[in-house]
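ok new one. same drill as before - structure tokens go in, u give me an amino acid for every spot. 136 of them this time. try not to just spam alanines like last time pls lmao
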């Protein structure tokens, strides 16, 4: 079974996602990182949607590895869980490392009760990302 799972991961890891979420990679995604995920709206569609948020949890389970992002949209907390090797995920980009938000936990579920703690800088990062996208 391990060989089959390793083959599936290698097949799905076409753009370096495994290294991005590896525990051994110091530059990878950690809980507390601000991440921008671009996904296709459906299978076979070319239109995409983006979601940016703070990574509050990473669940490492081989081919079923997933991560949870949280953001505040129009004063409502929104969480979205993404499967790392899903064919609908087009692009994963780390916008900010968790150095400013000192994280000492693996799961940051306490941010659900403290909405202003980590989400104040997300608006400026979102505007900066949109400006870079328009300039290209």
């Amino acid at each position: 079974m391990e060989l089959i799972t390793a083959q599936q991961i290698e097949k799905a890891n076409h753009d370096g996602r495994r290294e991005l979420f590896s525990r051994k990679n110091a530059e990878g995604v950690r809980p507390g990182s601000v991440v921008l995920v671009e996904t296709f709206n459906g299978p076979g569609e070319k239109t995409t949607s983006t979601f940016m948020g703070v990574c509050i949890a990473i669940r490492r389970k081989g081919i079923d590895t997933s991560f949870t992002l949280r953001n505040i949209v129009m004063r409502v907390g929104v969480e979205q869980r993404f499967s790392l090797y899903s064919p609908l995920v087009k692009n994963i980009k780390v916008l900010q490392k968790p150095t400013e938000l000192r994280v000492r936990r693996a799961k940051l579920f306490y941010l659900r009760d403290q909405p202003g703690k980590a989400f104040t800088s997300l608006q400026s990062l979102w505007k900066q990302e949109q400006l870079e996208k328009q300039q290209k």
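The chain has a mean pLDDT of 85. and btw Strands lie at 34-40, 48-59, 66-73, 76-83, 89-96.
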